[in-house]
Specification:
- The chain contains nine helices and twelve strands.
- The chain is α/β, with parallel strands linked by helices and 358 residues long.
- The protein has a single domain, classed as Metallo-dependent phosphatases (Purple Acid Phosphatase, chain A, domain 2, 4-Layer Sandwich).
- α1 runs parallel beside α3.
- The two termini are 17 Å apart.
C-alpha cells in the first residue's frame, strides 16, 4: 500500500478550511464510518487519501464537528498499536499512517474541534472499557457499592481517547449505542448499524424481537431491549476474546478478508440496493423501541460498507443514509465515502445531508 513519506511531519503552513461567503452563516459536520484502521485494506493508511478527503471537504467550511460511526479502529483484525499507530507493516520505513496521526491531521486541516465517537462491532471494546470504568472500577475506587446493573445507553464526555488528540481545544466524547442531533430542526439518529444485522446478535433480528402480537408494555420493552443488547455484547466480547491472541486474529483475518472481498465483488455485479427489507424493518423497530419517544426524521448508519440514501414512504422513519467505508475490498471499491451535514438556515435535510465518494 502506498504511503506518504512525510506522514509524521505536520504541514507548517496548513490552514483550517475557511468558510466561503455563500455558506458563512452555516456550519458543517463530517460523518464517517468503517475506516478500519489496522486492516491492511484501509485506504486512510495512506495520507494521500486523507489529503483527498480534506480537499473534498473544502466547500463545506467551516467544519465544526466530526462524527465517527464505528469500526474506526479494527480491533478484531489488529491490535491497538497497529490501529492507532499504524504499525501494520513489517518494514518500519514503510509504516502506514495510523488513526492518531489521521485524526489530528483532520482536526488541523479542517478546524473542527468536536468529535463524537459511536463504537461499532469491530471497535466495541471502546464502549466496553468505558462501561467497565463507569459501572465497576469507579464505584470500587470511590468506596461505593456495586449495583450489578449495566446500562447499554451511555455518554462518556471524558474518554481515554482524549489522549490521542494533540490539537488544542479539541474534545472527544464516546456515545453508545447511537448519537442524536438536530439538523435544521429535524431529529436524526446516527449509529454504526450492527444492530440492524442479526449476525451480530447470534442471529436475533431486532426487527422481529419487537414484532410480538399486541401492544407491549413499557416493562416488556425494557426487558426485550436489555436482553437484545446483552446478546450483542456477548457476541462482540466472544469475537474480541478470539482476537486477543495473535494466531487466532491472523486466522480470523485470513477468513474475513477473502469473504468480504468476494461479497463486495458479488454485490457490485448484482448492483444490490444498500437497504434491504430486513434492514428497513430493523431500523424502524430500533427507532420505535430503542430511541427516546418523538418523531425521528432520519437515520444515518454504516456497517455494510455500501454508501447510499433512501426515502421511505411509510413507517416511523422517512430518510435513511449510509456513510459507506474507507476499506478497499475490491478493485471496484472507491477510495472512500462519507457524509456531510449542513447545519443552519432553512435547507431541507435531503439537501443538508449528502453522501460523497472520493
Amino acid at each position: 500500500m502506498t504511503t506518504s513519506s512525510n506522514q509524521n511531519t505536520p504541514k507548517k503552513n496548513a490552514q483550517p478550511l475557511q468558510a466561503t461567503s455563500a455558506i458563512r452563516q452555516t456550519t458543517s459536520t463530517l460523518v464517517v464510518s468503517d475506516l478500519h484502521f489496522g486492516d491492511t485494506r484501509c485506504t486512510l493508511h495512506s495520507m494521500r487519501t486523507a489529503e483527498a478527503l480534506v480537499a473534498k471537504l473544502s466547500p463545506f467550511a467551516p467544519l465544526t464537528d466530526i462524527v465517527l460511526l464505528g469500526d474506526i479502529l479494527d480491533l478484531q483484525l489488529a491490535n491497538w498499536a497497529q490501529a492507532v499507530e499504524g504499525m501494520i507493516l513489517a518494514t518500519p520505513a514503510k509504516r502506514a499512517a495510523g488513526f492518531r496521526y489521521f485524526i489530528n491531521f483532520l482536526l488541523r486541516e479542517t478546524g473542527a474541534r468536536r468529535i463524537t465517537y459511536v463504537p461499532g462491532n469491530h471497535d466495541y471494546r471502546i464502549f466496553d472499557y468505558h462501561s467497565v470504568e463507569r459501572s465497576l472500577l469507579r464505584p470500587l475506587r470511590n468506596g461505593k457499592k456495586l449495583s450489578g446493573k449495566t446500562s447499554f445507553f451511555r455518554t462518556f464526555p471524558e474518554s481515554f481517547l482524549q489522549g490521542l488528540l494533540t490539537v488544542p481545544d479539541a474534545k472527544i466524547q464516546v456515545v453508545y449505542p447511537h448519537h442524536t442531533i438536530r439538523v435544521n430542526g429535524e431529529r436524526i439518529i446516527l449509529t454504526h448499524g450492527h444492530f440492524f444485522d442479526p449476525t451480530q446478535a447470534f442471529n436475533h433480528e431486532i426487527g422481529k424481537i419487537f414484532s410480538k402480537t399486541g401492544p407491549l408494555s413499557r416493562d416488556q420493552i425494557v426487558r426485550l431491549r436489555q436482553n437484545y443488547f446483552r446478546r450483542v455484547s456477548l457476541y462482540q466480547n466472544l469475537v474480541s476474546g478470539i482476537s486477543m491472541r495473535k494466531d487466532l486474529r491472523d486466522w480470523f483475518s485470513s477468513l474475513y478478508q477473502p469473504v468480504t472481498s468476494w461479497k463486495q465483488k458479488f454485490q457490485h455485479r448484482q448492483r444490490k440496493q444498500f437497504l434491504t427489507d430486513a434492514m428497513k424493518r430493523s431500523i424502524e423497530h430500533y427507532v420505535t423501541f430503542c430511541c427516546r419517544p418523538g418523531r425521528v426524521h432520519g437515520v444515518i448508519f454504516g456497517h455494510t460498507h455500501r454508501p447510499g440514501t433512501a426515502t421511505l414512504q411509510n413507517g416511523p422513519v422517512r430518510y435513511v443514509w449510509n456513510c459507506g467505508s474507507f476499506l478497499r475490498e475490491s478493485s471496484q471499491s472507491p477510495l472512500g465515502s462519507f457524509i456531510t451535514i449542513r447545519n443552519g438556515g432553512k435547507m431541507p435535510i435531503t439537501e443538508a445531508i449528502q453522501v460523497h465518494q472520493l
